[in-house]
UniProtKB/TrEMBL annotation:
GO terms for cellular component: membrane. The lineage of its organism: Bacteria, Pseudomonadati, Pseudomonadota, Betaproteobacteria, Burkholderiales. Its main location: membrane. Keywords: Cell membrane, Cell projection, Cilium, Flagellum, Membrane, Transmembrane, Transmembrane helix. It holds the Pfam family FliO. This is Flagellar biosynthetic protein FliO. The chain crosses the membrane at residues 6-25. It comes from Scleromatobacter humisilvae. The keyword Cell membrane applies. It is found in: Cell membrane. The keyword Transmembrane applies.
Amino acid sequence: MTTSLMPLLAFLIVIAMIPVALWMMKRAGIGGAAPAGSVLRHVSQLSLGTSQRVTVVEIAVGAERHWLVLGVTGERVTQLASYPAPDVGTVPSAPAHNAAVNQLIARWRGATGAQGGRDE
């Protein structure tokens, strides 16, 4: 009877080792995100539908860095544009038009509140 339980015990041990191995790979940096000095880095992503999105990827070749804007669907990846990557120090924390957009949103909310759009 003990020999019939050995394969089951071995199977359970293997199944229990999968999360442990994944955790160790994550801690060691083997899988997952790319390291800081890598050639390819994911910058941003915008979902357009269930299987459509626009992705910005940074490619570094030596000292040159480029951003590729890619259209990604379930069937293909299409390059939409290519730009030189901005310097890290020159990227603003908020867009320059942020204040104007916030004013328009506040004005719109005030107009819809005055028309009885939502009672608070």
